[in-house]
Design brief:
Elements lengths: L17 H5 L5 H8 L5 H5 L14 H13 L4 H10 L1 H6 L12 H10 L2 H17 L7 E11 L6 H19 L17 H22 L2 H14 L16 E4 L5 E12 L4 E8 L8 H10 L6 E3 L7 H7 L4 E3 L4 H8 L7 E3 L4 E3 L8 E6 L5 E6 L2 H6 L17 E6 L1 H11 L2 H7 L3 H11 L2 H4 E2 L8 E2 L1 H10 L17 E2 L7
Parallel strand pairs: 1-5, 1-12, 5-6
Antiparallel strand pairs: 1-3, 2-3, 3-4, 7-8, 9-10, 10-11, 13-14
Helix pairs in contact: 2-20, 8-20, 9-10, 9-11, 10-11
Length: 504
């Protein structure tokens, strides 16, 4: 239950004056408290609490401020609470009496897990942007877009390995508590067996033991069998790489290096404030996320007039989305333009990190063959691996996979005249000058990488976070007058409040 305003206690502490005596006027936390309005937290989180039952909960605003301090000074929950008990600047910032006792650290974990939901995160993001607008910190309609990857905190396994491990786990439990069923085990496939053999064995195992599993009364055995049935139903096992994180996918950093996890697609204002964020699996291309990022930035109060990005964002669809109202400042890669203008079939995209066409299964073309015609058009043929195509579970529905030709390829025609106007725009001085500020989002990506929970996440939703946009901006405005050890950090120190919904 959350207290209403009538239940809030008036501070009558005789020691209240100690704050004015020992905390300097230019102290960082005093500056933040003076210029930042945290009053939005209580009404925003009221719906997360029971209205009429339960013990009175700690103020959400205070809990929010504790998480802010945790990120600002890079502290663990236990260290934060211990420090806040004796540090008067902390208690002043938290609106507590000097003699007040601090909460148990476990309440911070509960607050993150149960009170900070995805819709709350979106509302908080919008509020930070609005405060920045109200204070005149955002002056332009420019957003800079890019993506950064997040590694899944699970080991990527092949479908064969997943089935093999689950079969092993089922047999182990049967040996422990239902030994009589072990006499019915079918013969295991060899270690060199492929996915088809493993699927056949799993189906045979479950079918043979179906009656015995149902009658054994062992809940753990029944749960394992149920999960195995779900995986092999309609052969869904072919599409996943981890039974612990089914949403994660392989993505490409370069043509030769990969990662397993997710992509964080970010829209940042020219003033280095996050205006929108979206999370996809690691194999998703960057370009199609642009309309959604523009929409989120506009929803959060930014009147977008300019978008700055890299080559991945130039496509016919994105140019149509931007129209005449929004200038798209991004260079056209000839291969990317060819792929975009060719109106690729569903599932195909150009992977700008690897510099190659990518099929619906996430595999890259092995090479590209170019041919110029007399009419000025360029013909591109992306060649895929025949071996991988033959084994691909999507081959029947794939444009390349079901080809009867000896070479598995995808042909694209690049119409030279169609791109001429765009290329002339990209050669202008205005375009070149505006593109120079794109590096700012690379700094933002580097900042994210330095956060351990952003660099590696167990689940897709675990990367949800709220940027401390307003807080950083005001700190930047006054940091020259703040005599604290944190002032030298600049943008790297604390642009993000990482409100993470994790299960760890």
């Amino acid at each position: 239950m959350l207290r209403d305003n009538s239940q809030l206690k008036l501070s009558l502490s005789p020691y209240q004056g100690i704050y004015e005596a020992i905390i300097p006027e230019n102290h960082l936390l005093r500056r933040i408290k003076e210029y930042i309005d945290f009053s939005f937290v209580n009404p925003m989180l009221r719906k997360q609490y029971c209205e009429h039952f339960g013990r009175p909960a700690k103020e959400p605003e205070m809990m929010f401020k504790l998480l802010f301090l945790k990120k600002l000074y890079d502290l663990s929950d236990e260290t934060l609470i211990s420090s806040a008990q004796t540090d008067m600047a902390y208690k002043y910032f938290l609106d507590l009496e000097p003699e007040a006792k601090m909460i148990d650290p476990s309440l911070l974990t509960k607050f993150r897990k149960t009170r900070i939901t995805e819709d709350i995160l979106e509302e908080m993001l919008k509020e930070t942007i609005q405060q920045a607008l109200d204070k005149g910190l955002i002056k332009s309609g420019t957003i800079i877009v890019d993506s950064t990857h997040t590694n899944a905190s699970v080991r990527a396994q092949s479908p064969t390995q997943i089935l093999r491990n689950m079969s092993k786990q089922l047999r182990k439990e049967i040996y422990k508590s239902a030994y009589e069923l072990s006499e019915k085990f079918p013969e295991k496939p060899s270690l060199e067996a492929g996915l088809d053999e493993e699927i056949t064995y799993t189906k045979d195992l479950l079918q043979t033991l179906a009656d015995g599993i149902a009658d054994c009364g062992n809940q753990k055995i029944q749960e394992i069998a149920k999960k195995m049935n779900e995986l092999i139903e309609n052969e869904q096992i072919r599409e996943i790489r981890s039974k612990d994180d089914k949403d994660a996918r392989f993505g490409h950093k370069t043509a030769t290096s990969t990662f397993y996890g997710y992509k964080n697609h970010i829209a940042m204002t020219e003033e280095r404030l996050i205006a929108g964020i979206n999370v996809t699996h690691g194999g998703a291309p960057d370009g199609p996320e642009l309309p959604g990022l523009i929409e989120k930035a506009q929803k959060n109060g930014i009147k977008v007039t300019e978008v700055i990005g890299d080559m991945a964002y130039v496509s016919d669809d994105n140019l149509e989305t931007c129209g005449k109202e929004i200038a798209l400042i991004a260079r056209t890669n000839t291969a990317v333009a060819a792929a975009a203008n060719g109106r690729l079939k569903e599932g195909f995209c150009f992977n700008k990190d690897a510099g190659m066409l990518q099929c619906p299964a996430g595999e890259l073309a092995t090479r590209v063959e170019k041919r110029a015609a007399q009419n000025g058009n360029t013909y591109l043929k992306y060649v895929f691996s025949k071996v991988k195509c033959r084994k691909c579970p999507l081959r029947e529905s794939c444009h390349v996979g079901k080809s009867t030709s000896k070479v598995r390829s995808y042909g694209i025609t690049q119409v030279s005249q169609k791109n001429q106007e765009r290329l002339e725009f990209e050669s202008s001085e205005m375009f070149k000058n505006r593109l120079k500020i794109r590096h700012r989002i690379e700094e933002k990506n580097g900042e994210l990488k330095r956060s351990p929970r952003i660099a590696k996440s167990r689940f897709k939703r675990a990367v949800c976070h709220v940027p401390s946009n307003v807080f950083y901006s005001i700190h930047s405005k006054y940091k020259k007058n703040c005599e604290t050890e944190r002032t030298s950090y600049g943008i790297r120190s604390w642009h993000f409040l990482n409100f993470l919904r994790t299960n760890t």
